[in-house]
């Protein structure tokens, strides 16, 4: 990709999203949805990663913010970790289209136009649900799918239907990801409720088509560090796609960087097996989330949703799908250390309120 003139940084793999809040889609919306998979772009084999402008900036964006954010993704090392997409959300366009019906960049905030930011083309489209004229998403979204397939370039297609018509049930034929929830906000209650809603559709996620409970709020200030760790951990183990940073990367804090740059947690999200974790057990405010990883490993998240009480949580092999009597090595992904003993049949740890522990369990051969 070309140098975008961002203080000398070469943007090798960063991309741009155009959010489209379409009105009525016209007579082409009458096209019937094919029974076969309409979207054959080869993308989304693992959850895409990047940044989106909405959660932090909302409509307070301009071309300088976008350029500086792309610079910051590179200079902080986040791009090297996989955060490749630079996604412009709403408010980049004028309210009215031109005479040919095309969206027009807002002159006051994007005077150089969109091509100045992405003259190599668009790699990602988020198609939102606002101002849809009452058209059915199962009709409207396939029209865009066909249009994208005719562009001659692979474009990741994110369906942002807000989960209204359960897009997990039909989205795989149409897009690479689909929103399973309404918009998130920067609070514990909003975050865990989105996680709960998204988990219901775990069986529908797979490489090429993923569940999306909305973008990350990590670093926006509305939660504690422990709560943001829970947020990032659940999104990672749930194979959330896209995994999009939603804070001001230009002014990122040390604590936020430690969370978003955790290579071991990112690796769980990007694991090639591509199976979304589920809740394996719930007892009051205590939860165990688990899912298989490649190499016969298991990712486990022990979550304490209580506001005040510190509690022990036990993950039994029966609950998390490990054969009985299997001996495992436990890697703590937030402490970045392997526990000093092997475990058989269960693992018990103490978890603080509004916090979690996250492990990768790897089978080991018994001692001879």
Automatic annotation (TrEMBL):
EC number assigned by the record: 3.2.1.22
> Would you name any one GO CC term?
plant-type cell wall
Q: Coiled coil where?
A: none
Q: Which residues form the signal peptide?
A: 1-30
Family annotation (InterPro entries): Aldolase_TIM, GH, Glyco_hydro_27, Glyco_hydro_27/36_CS, Glyco_hydro_b, Melibiase_C
Keyword line: Disulfide bond, Glycosidase, Hydrolase, Signal
**Gene Ontology MF terms in the entry:** alpha-galactosidase activity
Domain (Alpha galactosidase C-terminal): residue spans on this chain:
283-361
Question: What are its GO biological-process terms?
Answer: carbohydrate metabolic process
The reaction(s) annotated as catalysed by this protein in its Swiss-Prot or TrEMBL entry are:
Hydrolysis of terminal, non-reducing alpha-D-galactose residues in alpha-D-galactosides, including galactose oligosaccharides, galactomannans and galactolipids
Q: Which Pfam families match?
A: Melibiase_2, Melibiase_C
Supply the SUPFAM superfamilies for this chain: (Trans)glycosidases, Glycosyl hydrolase domain
Q: Which family does it belong to?
A: Belongs to the glycosyl hydrolase 27 family.
Q: What name does UniProt use for this protein? A: Alpha-galactosidase
Q: Which organism is it from?
A: Colocasia esculenta (Wild taro)
User: Species lineage, top-down?
Assistant: Eukaryota, Viridiplantae, Streptophyta, Embryophyta, Tracheophyta
């Amino acid at each position: 990709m070309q140098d975008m003139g961002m203080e000398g940084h070469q943007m090798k793999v960063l991309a741009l999203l155009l959010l489209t809040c379409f009105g009525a889609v016209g007579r082409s919306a009458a096209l019937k949805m094919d029974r076969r998979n309409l979207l054959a772009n080869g993308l989304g084999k693992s959850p895409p990663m990047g940044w989106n402008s909405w959660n932090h900036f909302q409509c307070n964006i301009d071309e300088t913010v976008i350029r500086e954010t792309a610079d910051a993704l590179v200079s902080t090392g986040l791009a090297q970790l996989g955060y490749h997409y630079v996604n412009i959300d709403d408010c980049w366009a004028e309210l009215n289209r031109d005479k040919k019906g095309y969206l027009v960049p807002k002159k006051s905030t994007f005077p150089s136009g969109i091509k100045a930011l992405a003259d190599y083309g668009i790699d990602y489209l988020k198609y939102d649900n606002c101002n849809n004229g009452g058209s059915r998403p199962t009709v409207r979204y396939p029209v865009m799918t066909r249009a994208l397939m005719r562009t001659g370039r692979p474009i990741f297609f994110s369906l942002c239907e807000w989960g209204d018509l359960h897009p997990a049930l039909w989205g795989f034929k149409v897009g690479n990801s689909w929103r399973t929830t309404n918009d998130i906000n920067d609070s514990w209650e909003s975050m865990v409720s989105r996680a709960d809603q998204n988990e219901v559709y775990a069986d529908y996620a797979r490489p090429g088509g993923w569940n999306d409970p909305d973008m990350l709020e990590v670093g926006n200030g509305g939660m504690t560090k422990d709560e943001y760790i829970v947020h990032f951990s659940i999104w990672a183990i749930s194979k959330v796609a896209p995994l999009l940073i939603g804070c001001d990367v230009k002014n990122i804090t040390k604590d936020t960087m430690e969370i978003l740059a955790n290579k071991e947690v990112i690796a769980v999200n990007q694991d090639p097996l591509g199976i979304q974790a589920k809740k394996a057990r719930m007892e009051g405010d205590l939860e165990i989330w688990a899912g298989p990883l490649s190499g016969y490993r298991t990712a486990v998240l022990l979550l304490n949703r209580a506001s005040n009480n510190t509690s022990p949580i036990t993950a039994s092999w029966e609950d998390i799908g490990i054969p009985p009597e299997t001996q495992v090595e436990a890697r703590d992904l937030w402490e970045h250390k392997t526990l000093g003993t092997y475990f058989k049949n269960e693992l018990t740890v103490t978890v603080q309120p509004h916090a979690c522990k996250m492990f990768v369990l790897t089978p080991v051969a018994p001692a001879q």
